[in-house]
Amino acid sequence: MKIIVFLGAPGSGKGTQAKSLADRLGFIHFSTGDMLREAIQRKEPVGVQANQYIVKGELVPDPVMIELIENALSPLNNTATVVLDGFPRTLPQAKALDSSAKTKVSIAVSFSVPQNVLVDRLTGRRICKQCGASYHTVFLPPKQDFICDKCQGPLFQRPDDNQSVVVNRLKVFESQNADLLKHYESTHRLVTVNGDRPVNVVQSDLDRLLG
Ligand code: AMP
């Protein structure tokens, strides 16, 4: 199995890029944020537990997250290439992946974006309830207010994209990120991408790196 991890602050574009890379190159994509939101919707115990942290912009405890990702990866066969988006977020999570030959990370891509850009991106973000497509009130508005261009589903704002939770999510990210970068840099697996550019420009960089 080949594991690629996307590191970056909330709003850095790693989710958008991970989805599109996986679609184009046939990789398997796991977003731990999406997995948790689905578990919340289905009222599964892990979702109920995680939601207490998510609404405050805090991290769900490592043992919960490590079990979630191990359960997702274990059925896959060794020929799969997997993009992880939103995992690892802490050093223990990174070490858990590396602790098994099957899930050892091949490359970590870090998306770098200035803080003020992140706040604007997150607070204006709107998501389609039906297909998950992402819009922005200013940078990428839908053709019709509150309606998805792709599937006509209703758009909503994630509860944790409001200003006060966003500020905490970015603070939490800052507190964990340096350790993660060090972990991958010291083992020569880190590449950094400037995420403060148009989606298609970042995308062609990633294709060159990972295709
Ligand atoms: P995201 O959609 O990636 O921004 O994740 C939304 C929220 O889910 C985060 O703010 C965390 O509360 C939680 N979460 C997602 N992935 C992780 C992880 N790897 N470790 C801890 N919490 C996570």
- Which series of helices and strands comes N to C? EHEHHHEHEHEEEHEH
User: Average pLDDT value?
Assistant: 96
Number of strands: 8
The Cα radius of gyration reads: 17 Å
Fold and architecture overview:
- The protein is built from 8 helices and 8 strands.
- The protein is an alpha/beta fold and 211 residues long.
- The strands form 2 sheets. A 5-stranded parallel beta sheet has the order 2-3-1-4-8, sandwiched between helices. The chain has a 3-stranded antiparallel beta sheet with strand order 6-5-7.
- The longest helix is centred in the last third of the chain and has 23 residues.
- It starts with a strand and ends with a helix.
- Adenosine monophosphate (AMP) binds next to helix 2 and helix 3.
Layout of SSEs?
Blueprint (H helix, E strand, L loop, with lengths): L1 E7 L5 H12 L2 E4 H10 L3 H10 L7 H12 L7 E5 L5 H8 L6 E8 L2 H9 L1 E4 L5 E3 L18 E2 L6 H23 L4 E5 L4 H12 L1
Parallel strand pairs: 1-3, 1-4, 2-3, 4-8
Antiparallel strand pairs: 5-6, 5-7
Helix pairs in contact: 1-8, 2-3, 4-5, 6-7
The structure holds adenosine monophosphate.
The site of adenosine monophosphate has 17 residues, from α2 and α3.
